[in-house]
Specification:
about 110 residues; 5 helices; three-stranded antiparallel beta sheet
Length: about 110
């Protein structure tokens, strides 16, 4: 079997790309902003806040959960979501390392 394209890149590069893909949708950014400001929420709150269908919100939440940015706990018939602070810091550090790699000199190519 041949090499997959992701095998050509480092684990860090693949991780950054996977995270960037999740951040690439404005609904997911809006969900993250809502969670940051509210410190937690119930899925139904997001439906009202963003005006998207329940199924659409659930898909976006699943994407955010898969990379570990959010976590949820079941409370009765509702799921309460919040930012995973540890993972958030890891993601922040990954991107900060990337941005810090650019030399802070003026000029162009």
């Amino acid at each position: 079997m041949g090499v997959t394209k992701t095998d050509l890149f480092t684990d860090r590069q693949n991780e950054l790309a996977k995270i960037a893909k999740v951040f690439a949708h404005p609904a997911r950014v809006a969900i993250l902003e809502y969670l940051i400001h509210s410190n937690s929420c119930i899925n139904g709150d997001l439906v009202q806040q963003l005006g998207l269908a329940q199924a659409t919100i659930s898909q976006h939440l699943r994407e955010l959960k898969e990379i570990g940015l959010i976590k949820g706990s079941i409370e009765g018939v509702s799921v309460n979501y919040c930012i995973d602070a540890v993972r958030w810091a890891e993601v922040q550090n990954l991107f900060q390392e990337l941005f810090d790699g650019f030399p802070k000199i003026s000029g162009c190519c």
